[in-house]
Specification:
The complex is a heterodimer of chains A (111) and B (369). With 111 residues, chain A is α+β, with helices and mostly antiparallel strands. Chain A has helices spanning 14-20, 67-70, 74-77, 102-108; strands at residues 2-4, 7-10, 23-27, 34-35, 40-46, 50-54, 59-64, 86-90. Chain A has a single domain (2-108), classed as OB fold (Dihydrolipoamide Acetyltransferase, E2P), CATH 2.40.50. Helix content of chain A is 20%, strand content 33%. Chain B folds into 3 domains: 13-55 and 149-241, Gyrase A, domain 2 (2-Layer Sandwich); 58-147, Alpha-Beta Plaits; 287-360, Beta Barrel (Elongation Factor Tu (Ef-tu), domain 3). In chain B, the strands form 4 sheets. A 6-stranded mixed beta sheet of chain B has the order 10-11-12-9-3-13. Chain B has a 6-stranded antiparallel β-barrel with strand order 14-17-16-15-18-19. Chain B has a 5-stranded antiparallel beta sheet with strand order 5-6-7-4-8, covered by helices on one side. In chain B, helix 2 (38-47) crosses helix 7 (232-241) and helix 3 crosses helix 4. The chains are: A alpha+beta (111), B alpha+beta (369). Chains A and B meet through strand 3 and strand 5 of A and helix 2 and helix 7 of B.
């Protein structure tokens, strides 16, 4: 998640998109929807399976990446940039301290 | 990811793992679900050629003076119509009319039939057929022969161009659903023009010790044709587009062939295990029928999802997935007979939302002749 001025951009990691395989469908809520840290707020579907997307932080959805509706493969191709999922207004900024850094995540997935 | 010690492996397991294929537990077998990606592999089969390891499938050999009688009693199809060197799709049924399995029957000679059966049902099928042989006292032997065969499937419009490089057998002489025994890369093989993708197809049965050499030879021969190794993920999207049944989904012990609508050649002129139940079902108006649907609204119908007609729960999805070739989301399902004809709008319950779909004819895809 990329944070700037109290708003975060949420996506999935390159590791996650690789594990999912070809992504064919993304289901995201509308702007204004409240999301809660740890709770599912949408889903990503590969050819074979449906996976929940879990919110890393609590907040309110400001913007949704509409381009994923017609081009879900962007999530595979650019998970950290053009394949962003939602932009969120953070209501509990202290939560960020509990998230893994990129380096800690790499260690976590055993890379 | 650690490997359960109970998972069975085909002779090509080392090849799959060495190539970095993503492996899954498929009915107790350690099998590749994908190599480069399901969509890419699917397109390779439709447009060029793909190679599948299907060695997990089972083989049963029936031999003897009454081999025909046993096969004819066990299977629903008109086995009497088979010529030597010809194959036929059939069902094995329980007495109550539900499916034990769906199989391919190959007539090797008047006294020798070779059956290819689903990997997950092979022990059950063998037990079922052996019990019928005992019950009827037919003069023949039933051999559970799976350990003697590896099976590689070469599928796609360029399949013949690839396989022909590896054999002196004239493949043009082997028509669809025919087979010949001969040499491929210098080893004995059963060369069958059968498949599970809806494309031109060769299924090659060889002894397990030749599987790796054959795999490499096919990949090399196919290199100039764009061949791709393909896993079970693409195998499923391909067979779904082709409207082909998968045991445990479109057919199973609680489903009979009449409602599955998939066995056009049920031979009612002969006696077979399950016949009275089939006739009873055929004599009444069908309650439910297998049909296809295409999603109209956003969403993918998946296996087991509930379906609604006019607001009432009315059926269920048996297999569903995106269709890479048709660029739609498709599914096969059981619906009330009145609605199971093309052109009806129905709903699929997808994570709490009813999403529109329209019934469609099967198959969804047919290759150009």
């Amino acid at each position: 998640m990329l944070v700037s001025e109290g708003a975060g951009t949420i996506g999935i990691t390159d590791h996650a998109q690789s594990e999912l395989g070809d992504i064919v469908y993304v289901d995201l809520p509308k702007p204004g929807t409240k999301i809660e840290q740890g709770a599912s707020f949408g889903s990503v579907e590969s050819v074979k399976a449906v996976s929940d997307i879990y919110a890393p932080v609590t907040g309110e959805i400001l913007e949704v990446n509409e381009s994923l509706a017609s081009a879900p493969e962007k999530l595979n191709q650019e998970p950290h940039t053009g394949g962003w999922l939602v932009k969120v207004k953070l209501t509990a900024p202290d939560e960020i301290g509990k998230l893994l850094t990129a380096a800690e995540y790499q260690e976590y997935i055993g890379a | 990811m650690s490997l359960s010690p109970e998972l069975q492996k085909t002779p090509l397991n080392g090849v799959h793992r060495a190539s970095g294929a993503r492996m899954v537990d498929f009915g107790g077998w350690d099998m590749p679900v994908q190599y480069s990606g399901i969509i890419e592999e699917h397109h390779a089969v439709r447009r060029a050629v793909g190679l599948f390891d299907v060695s997990h499938m089972g083989e049963i050999e029936i031999r003897g003076p009454q081999a025909f009688d046993l096969v004819g009693y066990a299977a629903t199809s008109a086995v009497g119509k088979l010529a030597v060197g010809q194959a036929q799709y059939a069902g094995l049924l329980y007495e109550h009319g539900g499916f034990v399995d769906d199989i391919l029957i190959y007539k090797v000679s008047d006294e020798h039939y070779f059956l290819c059966v689903n990997a997950s049902n092979q022990e059950k099928d063998y037990g079922h057929i052996a019990a019928l042989q005992k019950e009827k006292g037919f003069n023949c032997t039933v051999e559970f022969a799976s350990a003697r065969y590896a099976q590689l499937a070469v599928q796609g419009p360029l399949a013949a161009s690839v396989v022909q490089q590896l054999t002196a057998v004239d493949l043009k002489a082997i028509r669809y659903y025919r087979f010949a025994d001969g040499e491929v890369i210098g080893v004995q093989a059963r060369i069958a023009r059968t498949g599970y993708t809806g494309e031109d197809c060769f299924e090659l049965f060889v002894a397990p010790e030749h599987a790796e050499a054959l795999w490499s030879a096919i990949m090399e021969a196919g290199a100039g044709h764009g061949i791709k190794p393909c896993g079970l993920g693409a195998r499923n999207t391909l067979r779904l587009e082709a409207g082909m049944a998968l045991y445990g989904h479109e057919i199973g012990p609680a489903i009979n062939p009449v409602e599955a609508g998939l066995l056009r050649n049920i031979d009612l002129s002969k006696d077979f295990c399950g016949k009275p139940a089939v006739e009873a079902c055929a004599a009444q108006p069908l309650k439910r029928k297998l049909c296809g649907i295409e999603m109209l609204g956003r969403g993918i119908a998946r296996d087991g999802y509930e379906m609604y007609v006019d607001g009432a729960a009315a059926g269920f999805v048996t297999s569903g997935s995106p269709s890479p070739t048709l660029n739609k989301n498709i599914a096969m399902c059981y619906l009330p007979a009145a609605v199971a004809e093309p052109g009806h709008t129905v709903q699929v319950l997808i994570r709490g939302q009813q999403v529109d779909a329209v019934t469609a004819p099967l198959p969804f895809y047919k290759r150009a002749k």
